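Appendix B, record 7
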Amino acid sequence: MKSETKRAAGTGGSVVVERCQVCESPDLESVLFLGYLPPVNQMRPVGQRPHEQPAYPAELLRCKKCQLVQIGLIVDPQILFPPEYPYTSGTTKILRENFAELQQEASPLLGLKGHELVVDIGSNDGTLLSNWVNAGHPVCGIEPTDMAQLANSRGIRSIQSFFNPAAAARAVKECGTKATVVTATNVFAHIEGIHEIVEGILAMLDDDGVFISESHYLMSLIETLQYDTIYHEHLRHYSLESISYLLDMHGLEVIHAKRIPTHGGSIRVYAARKGTRPVQPTVQAVVNEERSAGTLSDRLVEFKHRVALSKVHMHALLKDIIAAGHRIYGVGAPSRASTLITYMGLDRELLDCVVEIKGSYKVGKYMPGTLVPVVDEGRLFEDQPEYALLLSWHIADELIPKFKQRGFTGKFIVPLPEPHIVS
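Structure tokens (predicted):
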């Protein structure tokens, strides 16, 4: 399979997507343009004077042939995922619970005995693999950032590398066997050269092995207006139709599919070599659900209209709050917050600061492309601002009771899908 982009590593270059990343069709339709966004995890130290920083056009495209929805510009991954990348999966409760549930689901479904090798691509701090270790499995993580060192210090064997054929070969060599399970959670939509990636996964998999991916789900993005999940780390937004098309090109078939709640709505997909494992009825059920919602083209036109309205409604909501001199603190600094803040224009004049959990790598930095500082979560309870803007709004039902219980007395602003205030 051909790779859809070519770039010298580390050049800082970007590639305009002229052909579909999966099927290479040139028949691409513009869905939405969110302006120019900074890399969501390039965060400058608080106190540093503003200086020139990169920003990249964020246009969403739909392939009319395979229905893949994808970003229109591919940025050098070494810009997006530097060694000091601040994201850690272990700090998020819903992810910890999801990874535990994945292992508990997969073991009986796949008939695992506890001795099979499990490899995780984009393994971060090893949180997912720790569940397999606890179940007795040998494991190996492949992770490009310094989180690999953190995982190794915790006893989770990890190779620090971007995933590519060389990393796949190294994993097989160092582990002395091929994997029965290869996982890629919240990374399978992030890596360019997707055909080379799938071939690398196949090179690591036993003949009856299973590849399990978890990705932001296009249908959830549309249903709940999650345009804030559109940023340059997310090269592709899969439906089951589009991911099945990709896997089929490599002799893989989907054997199980399931919607899961992580990241505001994701899809977990199990794939195996054709004919090696039974196809579960869940696959057809998800396909039927996608088809019954209407044509993707029509749904995306409506989505674009709703995105524009959300911005107008948000500014209308903020007008009286700002006029009265009330303070607004952001709550949480996930990657998606950068898109929301940039598209909405929420700089320091509107947003005093963003609070993050104690110990986060993001505390003491500015939100990307702004002078909004990220501070310790304790400030929310000490300062008691009049309003807290939930930047992790997709888990508002979980966050609001927690912050009330901890003593926050102000009101909450939930920005999406419809901006509103919760007392």
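Remarks on this record: Residues 129 and 227 are 30 Å apart (CA to CA). The chain has two domains: 89-293, 298-422.
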